[in-house]
Design a protein that fits this description.
mainly alpha, two-stranded antiparallel ribbon
């Protein structure tokens, strides 16, 4: 057995860096890898976690809206499609804001515009969720099958709140970081 070779793999958005045991097993591809995560106490919230939170919110929203027990099929085109579009638009605006490289006042304003757009879309989604909650009483109950799928309105609202606070914190962080560019 040769020396242990370990490489550090960078995680994608929302993922921690991971150490991987890079020893090939006897006569075959890598069958087993050891993943070590960052201890919970040492994890930090970064502005980019809002992007993965927004993606999770959008996926959860589509999953919830496609449940015919919660949202009747006759409302699919008139109401639930708007909810789904709003959630996906939050991801799009957040991604656009993240894609802007800030190097001058103009690029800072563009990024801030996309961040503000995403915050406004969160407010729009929240309003639609409140209407849905009043229209569809089946959203208030949670059956056994839902518990297994972890589908519930409290989780949906919690995800929305997490995205909203993340976007506001990111915008505030950018304002502090780029205050020299804006002359404030």
């Amino acid at each position: 057995m040769g020396p242990l070779r370990v490489r550090l793999e960078r995680g994608g958005p929302g993922l921690s860096n991971q150490l991987i045991d890079n020893r090939p097993p006897k006569g075959g591809p890598l069958e087993e890898a050891i993943y070590l995560s960052v201890p919970k106490s040492k994890r930090k919230e970064t502005p980019l976690t809002v992007l993965t939170d927004a993606q999770q919110l959008a996926a959860y929203t589509v999953l919830l809206c496609s449940d015919e027990k919660r949202f009747p099929k006759k409302y699919r085109l008139s109401f639930t499609s708007d909810i789904e579009k709003e959630a996906v638009n939050i991801v799009a605006s957040t991604s656009k804001a993240n894609a802007v490289f800030v190097n001058d006042e103009e690029s800072y304003k563009l990024r801030r515009t996309y961040q503000q757009e995403a915050i406004a879309q969160v407010a729009g989604l929240q309003a639609r969720m409140q209407v849905a909650y009043k229209l569809f009483p089946q959203l208030k109950t949670m059956g056994e099958a839902d518990k297994k799928k972890r589908i519930n309105i409290a989780c949906w609202s919690g995800q929305l709140y997490k995205v909203k606070t993340g976007l506001i914190a990111w915008k505030k962080s950018d304002a502090e970081r780029y205050k020299d560019l804006t002359g404030q």
